């Protein structure tokens, strides 16, 4: 069992591998993840939606979040304009400069939820994005308005709310109201 807050352990990110797909599937089945990801967890869906990052056939980059040396969750990043059909509503709602990234994330391990790890994950992964994508001017993240923990973590990590509007929800339980947060590349990053 882990003791203390998120600051007590090292946080790391490693690209997903085929061997991680079963763990991602298990995490997506946890109630706290399924509530906002509402993802088909069949073997075929996991292969379809996560193997492309592993195989390099998708522009999305998926990472396992490691906390204290143990797999804790998932974070994804992509350039928004690499998926024009998937981000039509976002582009209509806010200005998306060329090269802008978006991220999506979850803490998969129930024992690690509520420890402040989300804010730290976002803050540290943002620095990784600036390092790896030197031409990315901003990271823009839409979040269901009902997911207070997620947008609170973005705010705590230094992101600024730039819009509120309707976007098709991932989970039909939600009304489609989203908040959009943005972090611009700091000078010298």
UniProtKB/TrEMBL annotation:
Residues 11-186 form the N-acetyltransferase domain. Its EC number is 2.3.1.-. Pfam families: Acetyltransf_8. One of its GO terms (molecular function) is acyltransferase activity. The keyword Acyltransferase applies. PANTHER family: LYSINE N-ACYLTRANSFERASE C17G9.06C-RELATED. This is GNAT family N-acetyltransferase. It comes from Promicromonospora vindobonensis. The lineage of its organism: Bacteria, Bacillati, Actinomycetota, Actinomycetes, Micrococcales.
